[in-house]
Amino acid sequence: MCNQSRLRSMALDSSGKQSEQQQQQQQQQQARVSSEIGDAERYKLRRFPNAEHEPENYEDLPLEFCPALFSSLERYLPEELLNSTRIDKASFMRRLLLQYSPDTERIRIVRHREYRDKILSSYRRLHGEIYNLDPTSFFAPSFLRAVSRKTEHSFRSIMVEQSPGIFTFEMLNPRFCEMLLAEVEHMEKWVYDTRSTIMRPNTLNKFGVVLDDFGFDSMLQKLVDDFINPISKALFPEVSGSSLDSHHGFIVEYGKDRDVDLGFHVDDSEVSLNVCLGKQFTGGELYFRGVRCDNHVNSDSTEKEVYDYFHVPGHAVLHRGRHRHGARATTSGHRVNLILWCRSSTFREMKKYQSDFSSWCGECKSEKQRRQRESVNATKEVLLRRAAEKTLVELASKSCAD
Prior knowledge:
By secondary structure, the chain is α+β, with helices and mostly antiparallel strands. It is about 45% helix and about 20% strand. Helix 1 (about 5-10) crosses helix 5. The protein is globular, with a radius of gyration of 26 Å. Pfam families: OGFOD2-like. This is 2-oxoglutarate and iron-dependent oxygenase domain-containing protein ICU11. GO terms for molecular function: dioxygenase activity; metal ion binding.
């Protein structure tokens, strides 16, 4: 979703050519990477994470990769490394990531981090308290009670499954919604006043902000780890709901002089959280049309898969990222939503080796059921034919005996 050309321009001087100093730094960096990759083969991660281990925070380290990725990966470290210093653990994980990441991806991440650092060094926060997760002040009491019990029954007790795989519930405290809305307006004012250019959330939304770029990444990752992960484990186990280890958090805005609607699409996520923050508006309904894998994303929907949802401020919609959906036009007013795309590197790796997604893809499931019916019918025909042949043989034998 990142605008790579814009990031690239940030790394170039006004003449459009890299300076000699930048070229030297890049050559030194590549040489350093090559030497580190050479001995990374000996590093192995655990098969399953240590759920009881509390990972470190890596936000302040100059890393080529997202700090949240290091925190998530730390739970998979070998037992003998879990009690090492933070620097040693970061070095260990960095070598592994360098081994499996192409240079182009690593360079893109470095430039994106430089872009973020530029924003964070200039932007002055309006409500600093909302950058750290405070469940008591952020969440509605009903949501907080349900999540504290950590059982599927408690989760479902506050949710309505409006249509298969689409769960709605009250989530955010009105005061938190107000503060986040004010913070977003403050961000937009800063962009206008400083004549800055910022990345928008994705290729479909031309308005809104990426919250991670403004310093919300740690707070949102904690939201994923402590709240969305347990819920997803219960509701969406087939898409590795319990191993969500990264996210993309952003704000979208609809109304006059903003985006009007949103085309039919699937999210770049395993699980998506969509929370309406406000304000006053009409229209903007979400329409859902069934879950599909890559091979069937453009297939027809069944009547049971058709569902429209009307936004309520403070209320959330939780669904699979592959659940096809769009947003109808916001006909008046101003609608603002918090979107959190939750991703699982484990699920994405496993998906490369799979061809049957009938556990979650509606069309794969229909095709599998169709094949099963055809197999059953074919078996019935064979059995009936054998029974008829047996009857004929018995009749012939009886006729000869007579």
